[in-house]
Design a protein that fits this description.
Shape: globular
Organism: Metabacillus indicus
Order of helices and strands: EHEHHHEEEHHHEE
CATH architecture: Orthogonal Bundle
InterPro entries: FhuF_C (IPR024726), IucA/IucC-like_C (IPR022770)
Distance between the termini: 46 Å
Helix content: 40-55%
Oligomer: single chain
CATH topology: Transferase(Phosphotransferase), domain 1
CATH class: Mainly Alpha
Number of helices: 7
Largest sheet: 3 strands, antiparallel
Protein name: Aerobactin siderophore biosynthesis IucA/IucC-like C-terminal domain-containing protein
GO molecular function, one term: catalytic activity
Strand content: 5-15%
Strand order of the largest sheet: 2-3-4
Number of strands: 7
Pfam families: FhuF, FhuF_C
């Protein structure tokens, strides 16, 4: 069974960079094309000025950090609306706004029909995760890691950071349409209990070992550095940056 997102749900998801239109920018790209090494390298070269980076590994990391919003978008829809987005790369494109100084691209879906749970919500949830991670984000991580020569752990932590942020924001500001118990269950499942097969063949759940420590204010401390400081004139670091960065 498939359903559509309501206008209110579309508006809510726009804060996770769900886009409604194609932008026509030269920096917009079909998601499926990013898995082809030559095309990916050409794209990273094209966007490096937006990221203020002259190093391929830095560009790759910060590109994935922006693309990571797809995880927050998809999991929010799954948990709050009980609707699974079609994250097949062939159904999606990354749309760039040339006037945006921060370069925060949006995700455009050709078809926005969504799956909904049947009698077994757990099986449905696994399908949403498999589509998101194994069939999309894991392939992107593998390609960026290989071509930009950057650790997969850094890239997975870039993604995990936004998953943690999204779920902890939900726990602190629960929408009326979902229970705290449902938020907690999905959160725990995604970052700790989900089987590695949902992320790719021969993989373990890449989020299980992340965010072990917290600052006194409750902020999560990363295990790796996303390399953002290498794009900052003052060498500013993210608030969650570890003391010893992996470069």
């Amino acid at each position: 069974m498939t359903v559509f997102l309501s206008e209110e749900e579309l508006q809510d998801l726009s804060r996770f960079r769900l886009g409604s239109d194609r932008s026509g920018s030269d920096l917009s790209v079909e998601s499926a094309g990013l898995f082809e090494p030559a095309a990916l390298l050409a794209y990273l070269d094209a966007v490096k000025h937006k990221i203020h980076s002259d190093r391929l590994n830095v560009t790759g990391s910060l590109f994935v950090k922006r693309y990571a919003f797809l995880a927050a978008l998809t999991l929010y829809s799954m948990t709050v609306f009980e609707k699974g987005l079609n994250t097949d790369p062939e159904n999606m494109s990354l749309e760039s706004d040339d006037e945006d100084p921060l370069w925060l691209p949006s995700f455009y879906f050709r078809k926005l029909e969504c799956s909904v749970p049947g009698e077994n919500r757990d099986e449905w949830r696994d399908e949403v995760l498999r589509s998101l991670f194994k069939n999309h984000l894991s392939r992107l991580v593998l390609t960026v890691s290989k071509e930009a020569k950057i650790s997969k752990m850094i890239l997975w932590e870039n993604i995990g950071l936004y998953i943690v942020w999204m779920y902890e924001t939900l726990l602190a500001n629960k929408p009326e349409c979902v229970t705290i118990e449902q938020i907690q269950e999905d959160y725990e499942y995604v970052v700790r209990k989900a089987d590695g097969s949902l992320f790719g063949e021969g993989l373990r759940n890449p989020f299980q070992s992340l965010f072990r420590e917290q600052h006194s204010d409750g902020a999560r401390i990363r295990q790796t550095c996303c390399l953002y400081y290498l794009t900052s004139e003052k060498r500013d670091r993210c608030s969650t940056c570890p003391k010893h960065c992996l470069t």
